[in-house]
Amino acid sequence: MIGEADAIWEELGKRTPVQVRQATFAEVGTDLTAWVIMGDSRFAATFTGHVPQVGETVNVVSIGEKHLMLPARPLPGTGTVLTVSSGRVTVQTILGPVSMPYVGDAPSSGDLVGISWSGDPYVVGKLSVQPPAPDPIPDPEAGTVRSATFMAIDAGSANAGTTRWWQAQPWASDTTIGAWFYGTQIKDTIPSGATLVGMEFYAAWQQRQGDPPRWGLHGFPFKGGAASVDGNAPWVPVEGWNAIPWAADWFTALKAGGIYYGIGLNHGGWNKFSSLAQNAWSGALRISWRA
Amino acid sequence: MREVSQKARDVLEGGDYRVDWMMDLIYDDEPRAQNLMVLEPSFSWDLSAQVQGSGKCSVLWDDVFGQSIVPREIGDLFSPFGAEVQVDVMLSAGAFQERIPMGRFVLDSVPEGVEYAIPRPHGGLPVVAESRVTLDLADYFLRISRDTFAFPSSPKSASMWDEAQRLTGLPVFQSIPDRTLPTNITYEEDRLDALEKVFGPSNAWPALTPGGALTALPKAWGPPVGRIEDVISASLEMRSENVYNRVVVEGRNPDPNGKPWIAVAEVRDGFLRTQNADGSPSPVRGNTYRYSSDKFTSLDQCRAYADALLPNLARLRAVTRTVVVPFHPLFELGDVCVLVDPTRMGEESLVRVRGISHAGGETTLTVEVSE
Description:
The complex is a heterodimer. By secondary structure, chain A is mainly beta.
């Protein structure tokens, strides 16, 4: 009994596998079986109302051992006549122009006609009135705000114009240039068409002395090259997150990449910020944008 | 290998250094507690899992205010709702100190929180002298996989990287070139499955950088990036499951009047052949791997993907080795390394890291052996 109960529980826990695959309709078999071809296999499926043309691509919905054949394309019930010639009309539908015969009198170009699709399609006849066009429905997902926090991957100081980053703390002093490096992540993350919502900088201080540090952008994704920073705007951020005063300019420059990749200190006072070993958040940027 | 300075590499090579596991507790991008000492760290990464990184560790806290860190309500310091931790290894040797990021994790659960309180000398509420929490951690993909789509959803961007960013909300490092995706498809419920399929046609897995940014890991082997030396043990394992010799790739033809997109690739010679030259069944017979995705844009792309998948699946995970080395913080998933085999007189072979676990003073690597 226990074995049976186990078997029943196991069966109940199983999900019936469901798959939707594409196949080619081949022919109608005896007992109204639909024969379809998928890869190098020819197998029987069940009709679900629609009768495709031979050679038409169909969707086969496999639910466990049952295979249901469904149309693989939309079958619009109406279309507009483009041309009429020798017993056939070309009808403009959402599928594009389709050529088919018609019932009764020949419709004329520009007529809205009804179409029957099962088996070979044909035009049923002209409709009495043109239905009015519906109002467009707005996209609920358009223009959402996205945000990401970019941690500095490296930081340090070098004497102005030299390549030796001898100090792990970013310093703004008379002789040194300080910098935070972010790799290519800002450019990689923010699409070029994005518009700025907000941009903040995480300041982790070690020493404040003298004039305010002067801020700018530098062109290095990683440490390397002769230390230089463009721009020298004085700014004294508070410890922690700060809205950047020149957010719009920096956002435009950093999301484009190519020229500027990170934030630097262009002299000013004797101010020191934490190295990444002291505080991993030093120099982190929090940017939100609308894409 | 993790990106560190040359000096840190030299220090690790030299062998005379000190390692401390540290942790920053983060809530809403705000560091709430920094440089916490991590006790009993045990962290592992597995390339074959969906949520690749996981870890367990404990944190001990005592302060002059007699505060406890044991979470009792949602919103407490270590309560596992929205809290993240950045786990780093601090490498120090003399005056040299460098932070090596190991991974960004989310708090999954706090299985054990203990407080030790002592009575005040003059009565009143007892003072917490020391509190300790054990943390179960999982990488950021856990949060992404739990955040399922509320409604069926379609891609909003034709750019692979832009779409991956939208799905995860993480910063991105573009490690492979961008690719155009079809937008007339619908995702299944799981965001992580969707992410895997976004990267699928480019033959890459989604991965996280140690700082918690999103990147892609190519399935193809790259050039070796490091050596595995000082091996303590390196046992070999061979198994037949997960080895396939036939691949069927199905795409969806957007042209409703077009032919179905089905591509089949088979191994036709060697020990893993599906059939003999005369068409009779081969000794191993067939084992079919099925991949279907709406993200292909042509039948040629399906065929190319089937052809690219087959050589990987026809040997993937067939031969793996479990390599134990003294603690080494730099290995990352997907690293191709030169293994120096201690039991075969230092013979060198090429391997790829598929699993890493750090516990105690040892690092255990599960590596896939090349052909």
